[in-house]
Design a protein that fits this description.
Blueprint (H helix, E strand, L loop, with lengths): L9 E2 L2 E10 L2 E10 L7 E8 L1 H5 L9 E8 L4 E7 L5 E2 L4 E2 L3 E7 L7 H14 L2 E7 L6 H14 L4 E2 L8 H8 L3 E5 L6 H8 L1 H8 L17 E3 L5 E4 L12 H5 L3 H9 L24 H20 L7 E5 L5 E5 L6 E3 L2 H9 L12 H7 L2 E3 L2
Parallel strand pairs: 4-6, 9-10, 9-12, 10-11, 12-14
Antiparallel strand pairs: 1-2, 2-3, 2-5, 3-4, 5-6, 7-8, 13-14, 15-16, 17-18
Helix pairs in contact: 5-6
The structure holds guanosine-5'-diphosphate and zinc ion (ZN).
The site of zinc ion (ZN) has 6 residues, from loops.
Length: 380
């Protein structure tokens, strides 16, 4: 895939960019390469709003979207998003467009590596269909023998983990290579060193982490927005809020495709029945002598319970129905898709702007003008 960093800022006379961050109704759009403005520094980013006609047709704008910008105001670093280019991929949780790679980060110690939790994260990642890099941090805390043992064990699962230490700066070059020219989503439980890793990979992010934003004195982890960071060697990296037990919601058959151990066995020969779930059915060719088989059975039971809940909720008089989204999660959606709008107070608009961690040379001071651009925001 072409990396966003390689994409031109202009195609013909259309100005294009990548949405790097979204908050409330504002979008930071990065121009690749930065557009030179006569007699001044080049403009790498524009603070954009979304054209009303996009809103009317329900066109969402996500982090990672390639967008066309109209009416750039170079002096004020502003613009308006006029169109969203077709997405190559779309993740719903976290909401990121055009990602092609997931980097799953776990720690080899502190916290202790929990195989069931790792399996959940792996399955969740496999469900997206994106390429996966498994990264085990804090290798400085264990002996080489232990590192090798984990490598061998995870190879049995079908993964080749990259063992790194952010603290000791070990094993980072191969990791950088695996991120080059890709749009990567970083994920993993909290405490494993994801923030430390992002800070190492993107030194500019460090400033943003330590800087408390605006008058509210909030740090970046209290705001739940997703942000893309540009990697110096090319490529983009999105971090996601840490979560401990991702819920798996997919069909039992989908789950069975998320285990490399099963995939390898099925690449040799097929089970007698196409809907075989490999629980000892007649004509099943998948053996049960692999380490994660019990995890598989446990998750299978969970998926079946969830599938049943989806089925049971399909009664017409309920206000909500459950739906399994492409990325696997169960979503609750209203049967009647009434759109609600609420007026946003000037005060809350100002607060959301205070949350922005970018300095626009004071151009955000003119909040009155900005307030007039967007009087309404969608109520979600
Ligand atoms: P996050 O919650 O995944 O973002 O993790 P943090 O980056 O906040 O790190 C959690 C803790 O692990 C911090 O105390 C870090 O200093 C520590 N840490 C991060 N990387 C390493 C490492 O490579 N080795 C060791 N020993 N500790 C690390
Ligand atoms: Zn089978």
């Amino acid at each position: 895939m072409t990396s966003s960093a390689d994409l031109p800022a202009w195609i013909g006379d259309e100005l294009l960019g990548t949405v790097m961050a979204v908050q409330a109704n504002y979008y930071w759009v990065e121009l690749h390469p930065p557009v030179a403005k006569p007699g001044a520094l080049s403009v790498p980013r524009l603070l954009c709003t979304r054209r009303a006609r996009l809103k009317k047709v329900g066109q969402q704008v996500m982090v990672g979207d390639r967008v066309q910008i109209e009416e750039p105001d170079w002096a004020g670093h502003r613009g308006a998003i006029a169109a969203v280019l077709p997405r190559l991929t779309q993740l719903d949780r976290p909401p990121v467009a055009n990602a092609d790679h997931i980097m799953l980060v776990f720690a080899i110690a502190e916290p202790e590596l929990d195989c069931h939790q790792l399996t959940r994260f792996l399955v969740k990642a496999e469900l997206t269909g994106l390429a996966i890099t498994l990264c085990l941090n804090k290798r400085d805390l264990v002996a080489v023998k232990t590192q090798t043992a984990w490598q061998q064990r995870l190879a049995q699962w079908g993964y080749q983990p990259q063992l790194i230490s952010v603290r000791e700066q070990l094993g980072l070059e191969p990791l950088r290579a695996s991120l080059r020219d890709r749009v990567t989503v970083i994920s993993g439980p909290s405490g494993v060193g994801k923030s430390s890793l992002i800070n190492t990979l993107i030194p500019a992010a460090q400033l943003r982490v330590s800087a408390v934003s605006g008058k509210l004195g909030r740090g970046r982890h209290t705001t739940r927005h997703i942000e893309l960071f540009a990697l110096s060697q090319g490529g983009l990296l999105a971090d996601t809020p840490g979560f401990n037990q991702p819920d798996i919601a997919c069909s039992p058959h989908q789950l069975s495709t998320c285990f490399p151990e099963i995939r390898t066995q099925l690449s040799q020969q097929q089970c007698q029945f196409a809907d075989c779930l490999h629980r000892g059915e007649p004509g099943c060719v998948v053996d049960q002598a692999w380490e994660r088989y019990d995890h598989y059975r446990q998750l299978l039971a969970e998926c079946e319970t969830q599938a049943q809940a989806v089925h049971d909720s399909a009664t017409p008089d309920e206000a909500f129905k459950l739906k399994i989204a492409d990325a696997g999660q169960v979503q609750k959606e209203p049967r009647l898709q009434a759109k609600k709008y609420r007026r946003v107070s000037r005060r809350s608009r100002k607060q959301s702007l205070d949350d922005w961690r970018y300095d626009l040379d004071g151009s955000l001071d003119d909040l009155e003008a900005l307030a007039d651009i967007e009087a309404f925001t969608e109520f979600e």
